[in-house]
Each structure stands twice: as C-alpha cells, then as structure tokens.
Amino acid sequence: MPERLDRTDFSARRITLALTAALAAATLLMLPMGAAQAACSKRVYVYSADWCGTCRRLRSYLDLNRIRYTLLDADNPRVKADMQRRFGNLAVPRTLIGRSVVSGLDTAKIQKLCR
C-alpha cells in the first residue's frame, strides 16, 4: 500500500518550489551582460553599506559584469553628509554613473547607462 502524504508535505513542497523559482529569477538578473558590454566607459560610484543585502547583490552584479566602481561607505559620516546634500536622503544602494543616478538594484538602467 502506498505511503500517505500529510498536507504539510504538500505545503513544504510548494514553498520549496516557490523559493527555487525566486532563486532562479534572481540568478537571471545577475547574469553578465556579455563581453562586448562588460565595461562601463563612465565613472561609477556606489554608495553602499555592509549591512545592506541589496548593496551586496549590486556589488556582485557589477563585479560579474567587470564594471569598475568606487565604493563609498554610507555609514561614514562624511559620505552620509555628501549623500544628504546630493540626494536629500540616505537610502542605499545608490549608484552614480556619469551624471546619472540609479537607486536600488536596477540592472536594466545600469546596462543602458554603461553603453
């Protein structure tokens, strides 16, 4: 006789499938743009904090795509003052590409600005 499965088994499977799908989607965002578009000809500055998960993903994305950047520690008082003056708030991550600002992890905008 086949083993009966508890309803909690199905819930755990659904959660596992949902997490797997979310991880696959996140991985696609992190794929390199390609060798022809791998570098950015503009100066790139990243306002970031060690405690920020999105900041870590942004830095990984830039590293994977071989985009050089200058990292600015958003927890440093001088950098905080600069952010407040430039942006009016202390939200991270914030990326400057040339004269353009990218808030958060917007890979499409980063690709567009680095062309």
Automatic annotation (TrEMBL):
- Record domain Glutaredoxin: where: 44-101
Q: What is this protein called?
A: Glutaredoxin domain-containing protein
Q: Which PROSITE patterns match?
A: GLUTAREDOXIN_2
Checking Pfam families in the record gives: Glutaredoxin (PF00462)
From the broadest rank down, the organism's phylogenetic lineage runs: Bacteria, Pseudomonadati, Pseudomonadota, Alphaproteobacteria, Hyphomicrobiales
Respond yes or no to whether keyword Cytoplasm is given for this record: no
Q: Which UniProt keywords apply?
A: Signal
Report the leader peptide range.
1-38
Enumerate the InterPro entries for this protein: Glutaredoxin, Thioredoxin-like_sf
Q: Does the keyword Signal apply?
A: yes
